[in-house]
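Re: beginner question about structure tokens

> Can someone show what the tokenized structure looks like for a real chain? I only ever see the sequence side.

Sure, here's an example I had lying around. Input first:
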Amino acid sequence: MDYITNSEEETEALGVWLAEKLEPGTVIAFTGDLGAGKTAFTRGLARGLGIPDRVTSPTFAIVNEYEGGRLPLFHFDMYRLGSSDELFDIGWEDYLARGGVCAVEWSENVADALEEVLSVKICRGESGNQRTITIEGVAL
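And the corresponding structure tokens:
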């Protein structure tokens, strides 16, 4: 399904909407250019899950954990990973076993290790803040 957002706030609102439909163990595989809005969408996911924490990009930490909502949220940034082997080295299977939502930015870097994902592709639109967001997969 394709959606058009015209601001960062609308992108976050789409994340809130999606979060209300997520079940434990959902893996969201994000794709999109640098600055496309993946972290903004994840902020919306956190808000929709009832997580009160400030959500930031996990670029240097690789994963940020957020709890205190309906489900925990594990926000991954795979930009710096060289292979899916490194994903398992950081405890990927342990995160899956915890029954939260795994939001994976730069998922294409570890695509061979991801099964049954909800795909969220974010592309820049015609204007500066416009985004085309395609959501496909198991949770819909």
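Each token stands for a local structural state, so reading them left to right follows the chain. The mean pLDDT is 91.
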